[in-house]
Amino acid sequence: VGLTRAKKNLHIWFVSNRLIHGLWQSTIPSRFLDELPETHVDVADSGNSYGGYGNLYGGGSFASGRGGGRQNPYGASRFDNIGAEKSGSFSNTYATPGWQRAQANRTEATDRNWGTRSGHQVERIGYGETDSGYGAGRTSVKGRTIEGELVAKSVADTPSAFNVGDRVFHQKFGNGNIAAIDGNKLTIDFDKAGQKRVLDGFVTSV
User: Which of 62, 103, 190, 206 could cross-link to 72 by cystine, CB 3.0-4.6 Å?
Assistant: First the structure.
């Protein structure tokens, strides 16, 4: 939509790092950017404090895979080297309170045990014996058991004060006749709204 509505100049921003569920995740530019005419595109580095996404994958571009970095799954792109020439890295220059909290909550992972995070037990569900990149494993959070006692019920122990056939009025549905009674729940055939099931506390005798 933005491409079609731009009149003179269009600025496209790329977020290389996003905070998702309390953890920082790195992303890559959309492959559709390469479909833009190269003669009409000026690639500019935002000069951010953590050196762009190029350094997050081993200090090189996605296409080259230098330094053990992850390659771009969509192939080589002219946008791969944005920020790669910057010095420093994300881990040692990004020191905001949000990043520090994310670091403190990180799971101390091992191959067999992923420890605990945020008070939950986290276990590894592996698809194989070794990690082969993204998708090699996923985590599941075990639910907690809450013990307690039921202190309220929707059906009262005492019988309703109404009887089948009584004419009643409901603030929303209007007038109707009681067709069935189940504790304090009434099945009412309303004149205009049809058959509804409501609590007897919401109706009055007509």
Answer: 62
